[in-house]
Specification:
Keywords: DNA-binding, Transcription, Transcription regulation
CATH topology of one domain: Arc Repressor Mutant, subunit A
GO molecular function: DNA binding; DNA-binding transcription factor activity
Protein name: DNA-binding MarR family transcriptional regulator
InterPro entries: HTH_MarR-typ, Tscrpt_reg_MarR-type_CS, WH-like_DNA-bd_sf, WH_DNA-bd_sf
Strand content: 5-15%
Structural class: mainly alpha
């Protein structure tokens, strides 16, 4: 049986969807940051490493678009992780101006260890939802991410 949220945590019925999504984001970010502290990485650093664990060889530009940050911000984040030996950047064979990013063995180890902590955060955070509701929410979030990424891509092409 799912645990229930405290009644005092219930937001106003008039709260916008954007506000509610932001509140969930910030609460999860705080829990995630706390869980990742022992690895000395931030939530976004861990997420970048995790994405690279699933999609090896993305470019810095690919990552900046995926995380909605400037190429300069992503470059700084990647430099920090590279200095720690968690990833490497190599020139693309076909276009030397493109740097492909890959995890090092140390980075992969960190991602695998951190995944257990992130799973625990998620299990606790979403325990108040029925499994079918969580499955529906995840499907809806995937749809939204796809739509918003598509809209961002169209905006960038028109700029």
């Amino acid at each position: 049986m799912p645990k229930t949220a405290p009644a005092t945590a219930e937001p106003s019925l008039g709260a916008s969807t954007t506000y509610l999504v932001s509140q969930v984001h910030f609460a999860l970010r705080n829990r995630t940051e706390a869980a990742l502290k022992k690895y000395a990485v931030t939530g976004i650093q861990y997420t970048v490493l995790s994405v690279l664990g699933h999609r090896d060889g993305l470019s810095s530009a690919d990552l900046s678009r995926r995380f909605y940050v400037t190429p300069q911000s992503m470059g700084q984040l990647l430099s920090t992780l590279e200095e720690r030996g968690l990833l490497v950047r190599r020139e693309d064979a076909a276009n030397r101006r493109i740097l492909r990013v890959s995890l090092t063995p140390e980075g992969r180890t960190l991602v695998e260890a951190g995944a257990k902590d992130i799973e625990a955060v998620e299990a606790d955070a979403f325990a108040c939802l029925e499994p079918r509701d969580l499955k529906t929410m995840r499907a809806n979030l995937r749809t939204l991410v796809g739509e918003l990424r598509g809209a961002q891509s169209e905006e960038n092409q028109g700029a």
